Amino acid sequence: MISRNFKNILVVSLGFLSLFTAYGGLQSLQSSLNAEQGMGVASLSVIYASIIISSMFLPPIMIKNLGCKWTIVAGMVCYVSYSFGNLFPGWYTLIPTSVILGLGGSPLWSAKCTYLTISGNVQAAKDGKKGSDVINQYFGIFFFIFQSSAVWGNLMSSLIFGQDTNIADIPDEQLESCGAADCGLNISTNSTTIRPAQKLVWTLVGCYIGVGVLAILIVSVFLDNIDQEQTSEFRGNREPFWQTFLATFRLLKDWRLVTLIPLTMYSGFEQSFLSGEYTKNYATCALGIHYVGFVMMCFGATNSVCSFLFGRLARYMGRAALFLLAAVTNFCCIISLLYWRPHPDQLPVFFVFPALWGMADAIWQTQTNALYGVLFPREKEAAFANYRMWESLGFVIAFAYSTFLCLEYKLYILLAVLILTVITYPIVEYNEHKSPTPPIEKGTYTSHKDVIKIDESSIICQTPM
Question: Which pTM does this prediction carry?
Protein backbone atom coordinates (compact mmCIF):
# COMPACT_ATOMS: atom_id res chain seq x y z
CA MET A 1 0.00 0.00 0.00
CA ILE A 2 1.58 3.27 -1.11
CA SER A 3 1.52 6.26 1.22
CA ARG A 4 -0.80 9.21 0.60
CA ASN A 5 2.18 11.47 -0.02
CA PHE A 6 3.59 9.12 -2.66
CA LYS A 7 0.15 8.96 -4.31
CA ASN A 8 0.07 12.75 -4.49
CA ILE A 9 3.53 12.81 -6.09
CA LEU A 10 2.26 10.43 -8.78
CA VAL A 11 -0.81 12.59 -9.40
CA VAL A 12 1.27 15.78 -9.76
CA SER A 13 3.72 13.95 -12.03
CA LEU A 14 1.01 12.55 -14.30
CA GLY A 15 -0.66 15.97 -14.51
CA PHE A 16 2.60 17.61 -15.59
CA LEU A 17 3.28 14.71 -17.96
CA SER A 18 0.01 15.35 -19.75
CA LEU A 19 0.36 19.14 -19.75
CA PHE A 20 3.92 19.18 -21.06
CA THR A 21 3.23 16.52 -23.65
CA ALA A 22 1.44 19.41 -25.33
CA TYR A 23 3.65 22.37 -24.41
CA GLY A 24 6.94 20.53 -24.84
CA GLY A 25 5.96 19.39 -28.31
CA LEU A 26 4.94 22.90 -29.32
CA GLN A 27 8.11 24.45 -27.88
CA SER A 28 10.33 22.06 -29.85
CA LEU A 29 8.57 23.04 -33.09
CA GLN A 30 8.36 26.81 -32.69
CA SER A 31 11.71 27.67 -34.30
CA SER A 32 10.83 25.49 -37.32
CA LEU A 33 7.03 25.56 -37.56
CA ASN A 34 6.53 29.32 -36.99
CA ALA A 35 9.84 30.47 -38.43
CA GLU A 36 8.42 33.38 -40.42
CA GLN A 37 9.97 36.62 -39.11
CA GLY A 38 11.17 34.66 -36.07
CA MET A 39 7.60 34.57 -34.75
CA GLY A 40 7.92 31.20 -33.00
CA VAL A 41 11.13 32.03 -31.18
CA ALA A 42 9.75 35.49 -30.33
CA SER A 43 6.73 33.87 -28.68
CA LEU A 44 9.03 31.69 -26.57
CA SER A 45 11.01 34.75 -25.54
CA VAL A 46 7.77 36.50 -24.51
CA ILE A 47 6.76 33.43 -22.49
CA TYR A 48 9.89 33.45 -20.38
CA ALA A 49 9.93 37.23 -20.06
CA SER A 50 6.40 36.97 -18.64
CA ILE A 51 7.56 34.21 -16.30
CA ILE A 52 10.23 36.59 -14.97
CA ILE A 53 7.58 39.22 -14.26
CA SER A 54 5.22 36.74 -12.61
CA SER A 55 8.10 35.34 -10.52
CA MET A 56 8.51 38.73 -8.88
CA PHE A 57 5.21 38.64 -7.03
CA LEU A 58 2.64 36.04 -8.13
CA PRO A 59 3.91 32.72 -6.64
CA PRO A 60 3.83 33.67 -2.92
CA ILE A 61 0.52 35.49 -3.33
CA MET A 62 -1.23 32.68 -5.25
CA ILE A 63 0.18 29.81 -3.20
CA LYS A 64 -0.69 31.37 0.14
CA ASN A 65 -4.20 32.38 -1.01
CA LEU A 66 -5.17 29.44 -3.23
CA GLY A 67 -2.91 26.70 -1.88
CA CYS A 68 -0.56 24.59 -3.96
CA LYS A 69 -3.25 22.46 -5.61
CA TRP A 70 -5.39 25.24 -7.06
CA THR A 71 -2.35 27.30 -8.00
CA ILE A 72 -1.23 24.32 -10.11
CA VAL A 73 -4.67 24.09 -11.72
CA ALA A 74 -4.73 27.82 -12.53
CA GLY A 75 -1.25 27.60 -14.05
CA MET A 76 -2.29 24.66 -16.21
CA VAL A 77 -5.21 26.64 -17.63
CA CYS A 78 -2.73 29.33 -18.70
CA TYR A 79 -0.58 26.74 -20.48
CA VAL A 80 -3.53 25.33 -22.43
CA SER A 81 -4.33 28.82 -23.75
CA TYR A 82 -1.01 28.77 -25.66
CA SER A 83 -2.11 25.64 -27.52
CA PHE A 84 -5.24 27.49 -28.66
CA GLY A 85 -3.02 30.33 -29.90
CA ASN A 86 -1.16 27.87 -32.13
CA LEU A 87 -4.34 26.86 -33.95
CA PHE A 88 -4.08 30.05 -36.02
CA PRO A 89 -0.52 31.25 -35.37
CA GLY A 90 0.10 34.95 -35.83
CA TRP A 91 1.46 37.87 -33.88
CA TYR A 92 -2.02 38.66 -32.54
CA THR A 93 -2.64 35.11 -31.29
CA LEU A 94 0.77 33.81 -30.22
CA ILE A 95 2.00 36.84 -28.29
CA PRO A 96 -1.09 37.35 -26.04
CA THR A 97 -1.31 33.64 -25.24
CA SER A 98 2.44 33.62 -24.59
CA VAL A 99 1.94 36.37 -22.00
CA ILE A 100 -0.90 34.41 -20.37
CA LEU A 101 1.22 31.25 -20.25
CA GLY A 102 4.17 33.14 -18.79
CA LEU A 103 2.09 34.72 -16.04
CA GLY A 104 0.86 31.29 -15.00
CA GLY A 105 4.20 29.55 -15.46
CA SER A 106 6.04 30.70 -12.35
CA PRO A 107 3.15 30.05 -9.92
CA LEU A 108 2.67 26.62 -11.51
CA TRP A 109 6.28 25.54 -11.03
CA SER A 110 6.72 27.19 -7.66
CA ALA A 111 3.56 25.48 -6.37
CA LYS A 112 4.78 22.15 -7.72
CA CYS A 113 8.18 22.50 -6.05
CA THR A 114 6.57 23.63 -2.79
CA TYR A 115 4.13 20.70 -2.92
CA LEU A 116 6.93 18.16 -3.46
CA THR A 117 9.04 19.68 -0.69
CA ILE A 118 6.15 19.65 1.80
CA SER A 119 5.27 16.06 0.88
CA GLY A 120 8.89 14.95 1.18
CA ASN A 121 9.34 16.54 4.60
CA VAL A 122 6.08 15.12 5.93
CA GLN A 123 6.92 11.62 4.70
CA ALA A 124 10.46 11.87 6.07
CA ALA A 125 9.06 12.85 9.45
CA LYS A 126 6.69 9.88 9.43
CA ASP A 127 9.43 7.42 8.40
CA GLY A 128 12.19 8.91 10.54
CA LYS A 129 14.38 9.64 7.48
CA LYS A 130 16.43 12.64 6.45
CA GLY A 131 14.24 15.23 4.74
CA SER A 132 16.70 16.01 1.95
CA ASP A 133 16.91 12.31 0.97
CA VAL A 134 13.15 11.95 0.58
CA ILE A 135 12.93 15.29 -1.26
CA ASN A 136 15.63 14.11 -3.69
CA GLN A 137 13.75 10.87 -4.23
CA TYR A 138 10.44 12.66 -4.86
CA PHE A 139 12.01 15.09 -7.33
CA GLY A 140 13.63 12.14 -9.08
CA ILE A 141 10.28 10.35 -9.40
CA PHE A 142 8.61 13.54 -10.61
CA PHE A 143 11.19 14.25 -13.30
CA PHE A 144 11.26 10.57 -14.34
CA ILE A 145 7.56 10.79 -15.21
CA PHE A 146 7.55 14.44 -16.29
CA GLN A 147 10.51 14.26 -18.69
CA SER A 148 8.90 11.38 -20.57
CA SER A 149 6.43 14.00 -21.85
CA ALA A 150 9.09 14.84 -24.44
CA VAL A 151 8.71 11.30 -25.77
CA TRP A 152 4.93 11.37 -26.20
CA GLY A 153 4.58 14.97 -27.36
CA ASN A 154 7.30 14.64 -29.97
CA LEU A 155 6.12 11.19 -31.04
CA MET A 156 2.76 12.76 -31.84
CA SER A 157 4.38 15.50 -33.96
CA SER A 158 6.64 13.11 -35.89
CA LEU A 159 3.87 10.61 -36.65
CA ILE A 160 1.43 13.31 -37.77
CA PHE A 161 3.91 15.40 -39.77
CA GLY A 162 5.47 12.26 -41.23
CA GLN A 163 2.30 11.82 -43.32
CA ASP A 164 3.45 14.76 -45.46
CA THR A 165 6.03 13.23 -47.85
CA ASN A 166 7.08 16.61 -49.30
CA ILE A 167 8.86 17.73 -46.14
CA ALA A 168 11.52 15.05 -46.62
CA ASP A 169 13.07 16.79 -49.65
CA ILE A 170 16.25 18.50 -48.46
CA PRO A 171 18.12 20.46 -51.18
CA ASP A 172 21.91 20.15 -51.28
CA GLU A 173 22.43 23.90 -50.89
CA GLN A 174 20.52 23.80 -47.60
CA LEU A 175 22.72 20.99 -46.25
CA GLU A 176 25.73 23.24 -46.69
CA SER A 177 24.25 25.75 -44.22
CA CYS A 178 23.48 23.21 -41.46
CA GLY A 179 25.34 23.21 -38.17
CA ALA A 180 27.90 25.74 -37.00
CA ALA A 181 29.72 25.80 -40.37
CA ASP A 182 27.32 28.48 -41.57
CA CYS A 183 25.90 31.33 -39.53
CA GLY A 184 22.62 29.44 -39.20
CA LEU A 185 20.42 32.46 -39.88
CA ASN A 186 19.76 31.84 -43.55
CA ILE A 187 17.77 28.61 -43.47
CA SER A 188 14.80 29.03 -45.76
CA THR A 189 11.53 29.66 -44.03
CA ASN A 190 9.35 29.25 -47.10
CA SER A 191 10.31 25.79 -48.36
CA THR A 192 8.33 22.63 -47.68
CA THR A 193 11.17 21.42 -45.47
CA ILE A 194 9.97 23.87 -42.82
CA ARG A 195 6.18 23.84 -42.65
CA PRO A 196 3.91 20.81 -43.29
CA ALA A 197 0.33 20.94 -44.55
CA GLN A 198 -1.99 23.16 -42.51
CA LYS A 199 -4.47 20.32 -41.97
CA LEU A 200 -1.77 18.29 -40.22
CA VAL A 201 -0.85 21.28 -38.06
CA TRP A 202 -4.46 21.64 -36.92
CA THR A 203 -4.65 17.91 -36.16
CA LEU A 204 -1.53 18.06 -34.00
CA VAL A 205 -2.54 21.21 -32.10
CA GLY A 206 -6.01 19.72 -31.50
CA CYS A 207 -4.40 16.66 -29.91
CA TYR A 208 -2.23 18.92 -27.75
CA ILE A 209 -5.28 20.83 -26.52
CA GLY A 210 -6.93 17.54 -25.55
CA VAL A 211 -4.05 16.28 -23.42
CA GLY A 212 -3.73 19.73 -21.82
CA VAL A 213 -7.36 19.64 -20.68
CA LEU A 214 -6.78 16.10 -19.39
CA ALA A 215 -3.97 17.41 -17.18
CA ILE A 216 -6.30 19.96 -15.59
CA LEU A 217 -8.86 17.23 -14.82
CA ILE A 218 -6.28 14.86 -13.31
CA VAL A 219 -5.00 17.43 -10.80
CA SER A 220 -8.42 18.92 -10.01
CA VAL A 221 -9.99 15.54 -9.20
CA PHE A 222 -7.22 13.40 -7.69
CA LEU A 223 -4.70 15.72 -5.96
CA ASP A 224 -5.05 16.24 -2.19
CA ASN A 225 -5.10 19.82 -0.92
CA ILE A 226 -2.35 19.20 1.65
CA ASP A 227 -1.94 22.84 2.72
CA GLN A 228 -5.63 23.65 3.02
CA GLU A 229 -5.48 24.52 6.71
CA GLN A 230 -2.45 26.78 6.31
CA THR A 231 -4.06 28.52 3.33
CA SER A 232 -7.27 29.17 5.26
CA GLU A 233 -5.25 30.51 8.19
CA PHE A 234 -3.33 32.86 5.88
CA ARG A 235 -6.53 34.20 4.29
CA GLY A 236 -7.91 34.86 7.76
CA ASN A 237 -4.74 36.66 8.86
CA ARG A 238 -3.29 38.23 5.72
CA GLU A 239 0.15 39.74 5.56
CA PRO A 240 0.43 43.20 4.00
CA PHE A 241 0.51 42.99 0.18
CA TRP A 242 3.93 44.55 -0.14
CA GLN A 243 5.41 42.09 2.35
CA THR A 244 4.25 39.21 0.18
CA PHE A 245 5.20 41.04 -3.03
CA LEU A 246 8.76 41.66 -1.86
CA ALA A 247 9.31 38.13 -0.50
CA THR A 248 11.03 37.03 -3.72
CA PHE A 249 13.43 39.97 -3.68
CA ARG A 250 14.18 39.82 0.04
CA LEU A 251 15.68 36.39 -0.48
CA LEU A 252 18.31 37.94 -2.77
CA LYS A 253 19.98 39.20 0.41
CA ASP A 254 21.10 35.60 0.92
CA TRP A 255 24.52 35.29 -0.75
CA ARG A 256 23.89 31.60 -1.46
CA LEU A 257 20.99 32.43 -3.75
CA VAL A 258 23.00 35.08 -5.58
CA THR A 259 25.88 32.63 -6.04
CA LEU A 260 23.47 30.07 -7.52
CA ILE A 261 22.23 32.48 -10.22
CA PRO A 262 24.72 31.28 -12.90
CA LEU A 263 23.72 27.65 -12.26
CA THR A 264 20.04 28.54 -12.45
CA MET A 265 20.41 30.64 -15.60
CA TYR A 266 22.47 27.92 -17.27
CA SER A 267 19.48 25.61 -16.93
CA GLY A 268 17.54 28.03 -19.15
CA PHE A 269 20.40 28.44 -21.63
CA GLU A 270 20.98 24.72 -22.14
CA GLN A 271 17.29 23.83 -22.50
CA SER A 272 16.65 26.66 -24.96
CA PHE A 273 19.66 25.64 -27.05
CA LEU A 274 18.39 22.11 -27.58
CA SER A 275 14.77 23.06 -28.24
CA GLY A 276 15.49 26.18 -30.29
CA GLU A 277 18.88 25.77 -31.96
CA TYR A 278 19.59 22.06 -32.24
CA THR A 279 16.14 21.26 -33.58
CA LYS A 280 16.36 24.00 -36.23
CA ASN A 281 20.01 24.13 -37.29
CA TYR A 282 20.77 20.43 -37.09
CA ALA A 283 17.64 18.23 -37.17
CA THR A 284 15.23 20.27 -39.30
CA CYS A 285 17.96 21.63 -41.54
CA ALA A 286 19.52 18.28 -42.44
CA LEU A 287 16.67 15.78 -41.93
CA GLY A 288 13.35 17.68 -42.09
CA ILE A 289 10.83 18.90 -39.53
CA HIS A 290 9.28 15.44 -39.15
CA TYR A 291 12.52 14.27 -37.51
CA VAL A 292 12.38 16.92 -34.77
CA GLY A 293 9.96 14.75 -32.79
CA PHE A 294 12.10 11.63 -33.04
CA VAL A 295 15.24 13.53 -32.02
CA MET A 296 13.52 15.13 -29.03
CA MET A 297 12.01 11.77 -28.10
CA CYS A 298 15.55 10.50 -27.62
CA PHE A 299 16.25 13.47 -25.35
CA GLY A 300 13.05 12.91 -23.37
CA ALA A 301 13.54 9.18 -22.89
CA THR A 302 17.12 9.58 -21.67
CA ASN A 303 16.12 12.52 -19.48
CA SER A 304 13.28 10.57 -17.91
CA VAL A 305 15.31 7.46 -17.07
CA CYS A 306 18.29 9.46 -15.78
CA SER A 307 16.06 11.69 -13.64
CA PHE A 308 14.79 8.64 -11.77
CA LEU A 309 18.27 7.11 -11.58
CA PHE A 310 20.06 10.23 -10.35
CA GLY A 311 17.30 11.03 -7.89
CA ARG A 312 18.19 7.78 -6.13
CA LEU A 313 21.95 7.94 -6.67
CA ALA A 314 22.24 11.43 -5.17
CA ARG A 315 22.34 10.07 -1.63
CA TYR A 316 25.31 7.85 -2.51
CA MET A 317 27.25 10.00 -4.98
CA GLY A 318 26.38 13.44 -3.67
CA ARG A 319 25.20 16.46 -5.65
CA ALA A 320 28.70 17.72 -6.45
CA ALA A 321 29.72 14.55 -8.31
CA LEU A 322 26.50 14.56 -10.33
CA PHE A 323 26.86 18.25 -11.25
CA LEU A 324 30.44 17.56 -12.36
CA LEU A 325 29.21 14.72 -14.60
CA ALA A 326 26.60 17.02 -16.17
CA ALA A 327 29.13 19.81 -16.74
CA VAL A 328 31.68 17.51 -18.40
CA THR A 329 28.97 15.99 -20.62
CA ASN A 330 27.69 19.39 -21.78
CA PHE A 331 31.23 20.66 -22.32
CA CYS A 332 32.07 17.73 -24.61
CA CYS A 333 28.79 18.13 -26.52
CA ILE A 334 29.32 21.88 -27.07
CA ILE A 335 32.85 21.40 -28.41
CA SER A 336 31.67 18.60 -30.70
CA LEU A 337 28.74 20.64 -32.05
CA LEU A 338 31.14 23.43 -32.98
CA TYR A 339 32.95 21.12 -35.40
CA TRP A 340 30.25 18.66 -36.50
CA ARG A 341 28.83 19.13 -40.01
CA PRO A 342 25.44 17.36 -40.00
CA HIS A 343 24.42 15.24 -43.01
CA PRO A 344 21.51 12.79 -43.49
CA ASP A 345 24.01 9.94 -43.95
CA GLN A 346 25.06 10.38 -40.30
CA LEU A 347 21.60 9.61 -38.92
CA PRO A 348 22.68 7.93 -35.62
CA VAL A 349 24.75 10.96 -34.64
CA PHE A 350 21.62 13.14 -34.63
CA PHE A 351 20.34 11.05 -31.70
CA VAL A 352 23.61 10.80 -29.75
CA PHE A 353 23.70 14.50 -28.87
CA PRO A 354 20.09 14.67 -27.52
CA ALA A 355 20.71 11.51 -25.50
CA LEU A 356 23.81 12.95 -23.83
CA TRP A 357 22.05 16.30 -23.39
CA GLY A 358 19.12 14.53 -21.77
CA MET A 359 21.39 12.79 -19.28
CA ALA A 360 23.00 16.09 -18.30
CA ASP A 361 19.69 17.95 -18.14
CA ALA A 362 18.29 15.28 -15.81
CA ILE A 363 21.02 16.22 -13.34
CA TRP A 364 20.56 19.98 -13.76
CA GLN A 365 16.81 19.69 -13.18
CA THR A 366 16.56 17.20 -10.32
CA GLN A 367 19.56 18.35 -8.32
CA THR A 368 19.03 22.10 -8.72
CA ASN A 369 15.38 21.84 -7.64
CA ALA A 370 16.32 19.66 -4.68
CA LEU A 371 19.21 21.99 -3.78
CA TYR A 372 16.84 24.97 -3.54
CA GLY A 373 14.50 22.96 -1.31
CA VAL A 374 17.35 21.98 1.02
CA LEU A 375 19.02 25.41 1.22
CA PHE A 376 15.86 27.48 1.76
CA PRO A 377 13.41 25.35 3.80
CA ARG A 378 11.88 28.41 5.48
CA GLU A 379 11.29 30.40 2.30
CA LYS A 380 10.31 27.71 -0.18
CA GLU A 381 7.79 29.80 -2.12
CA ALA A 382 10.19 32.72 -2.57
CA ALA A 383 13.15 30.41 -3.29
CA PHE A 384 11.39 28.52 -6.07
CA ALA A 385 10.03 31.79 -7.45
CA ASN A 386 13.64 32.99 -7.70
CA TYR A 387 14.57 29.70 -9.35
CA ARG A 388 11.93 30.19 -12.05
CA MET A 389 12.83 33.86 -12.46
CA TRP A 390 16.54 33.31 -13.07
CA GLU A 391 16.04 30.19 -15.16
CA SER A 392 13.53 32.08 -17.28
CA LEU A 393 16.00 34.93 -17.71
CA GLY A 394 18.34 32.39 -19.27
CA PHE A 395 15.57 31.34 -21.66
CA VAL A 396 14.75 34.95 -22.55
CA ILE A 397 18.35 35.91 -23.32
CA ALA A 398 18.92 32.77 -25.41
CA PHE A 399 15.71 33.12 -27.41
CA ALA A 400 16.23 36.88 -27.78
CA TYR A 401 19.57 36.56 -29.57
CA SER A 402 18.44 33.45 -31.46
CA THR A 403 17.40 35.39 -34.59
CA PHE A 404 20.46 37.59 -35.04
CA LEU A 405 23.52 35.80 -33.60
CA CYS A 406 25.38 33.12 -35.54
CA LEU A 407 25.17 29.58 -34.19
CA GLU A 408 28.90 29.51 -33.46
CA TYR A 409 28.59 32.49 -31.11
CA LYS A 410 25.58 30.94 -29.38
CA LEU A 411 27.67 27.88 -28.60
CA TYR A 412 30.46 30.06 -27.20
CA ILE A 413 27.98 31.91 -24.97
CA LEU A 414 26.60 28.60 -23.72
CA LEU A 415 30.13 27.42 -22.97
CA ALA A 416 30.95 30.64 -21.09
CA VAL A 417 27.88 30.34 -18.84
CA LEU A 418 28.75 26.69 -18.16
CA ILE A 419 32.27 27.62 -17.08
CA LEU A 420 30.90 30.36 -14.80
CA THR A 421 28.54 27.80 -13.26
CA VAL A 422 31.40 25.39 -12.59
CA ILE A 423 33.24 28.20 -10.77
CA THR A 424 30.37 29.49 -8.60
CA TYR A 425 28.36 26.39 -7.65
CA PRO A 426 31.12 24.66 -5.61
CA ILE A 427 31.24 27.69 -3.29
CA VAL A 428 27.66 27.07 -2.16
CA GLU A 429 28.14 23.31 -1.94
CA TYR A 430 31.28 23.66 0.16
CA ASN A 431 29.54 26.06 2.54
CA GLU A 432 26.57 23.69 2.90
CA HIS A 433 28.95 20.82 3.60
CA LYS A 434 30.75 22.77 6.32
CA SER A 435 27.66 24.46 7.78
CA PRO A 436 24.50 22.48 6.91
CA THR A 437 21.25 24.43 6.83
CA PRO A 438 19.64 23.82 10.26
CA PRO A 439 16.27 22.08 10.40
CA ILE A 440 13.14 23.88 11.52
CA GLU A 441 12.28 22.64 14.95
CA LYS A 442 8.76 24.01 15.22
CA GLY A 443 5.81 23.73 12.92
CA THR A 444 4.95 20.95 10.55
CA TYR A 445 2.78 20.48 7.54
CA THR A 446 0.00 18.02 8.02
CA SER A 447 -2.59 16.89 5.55
CA HIS A 448 -6.16 17.83 6.26
CA LYS A 449 -6.88 14.09 6.04
CA ASP A 450 -3.85 12.80 7.94
CA VAL A 451 -2.94 13.68 11.50
CA ILE A 452 0.75 13.00 12.02
CA LYS A 453 2.04 12.57 15.54
CA ILE A 454 5.81 12.30 15.77
CA ASP A 455 8.74 13.59 17.75
CA GLU A 456 9.59 17.07 16.50
CA SER A 457 13.30 16.37 16.89
CA SER A 458 13.14 14.00 13.90
CA ILE A 459 11.71 16.60 11.55
CA ILE A 460 14.04 17.82 8.84
CA CYS A 461 13.38 21.04 6.89
CA GLN A 462 9.75 21.44 7.96
CA THR A 463 8.22 24.81 7.25
CA PRO A 464 4.91 26.36 8.34
CA MET A 465 3.05 28.14 5.52
Answer: 0.74
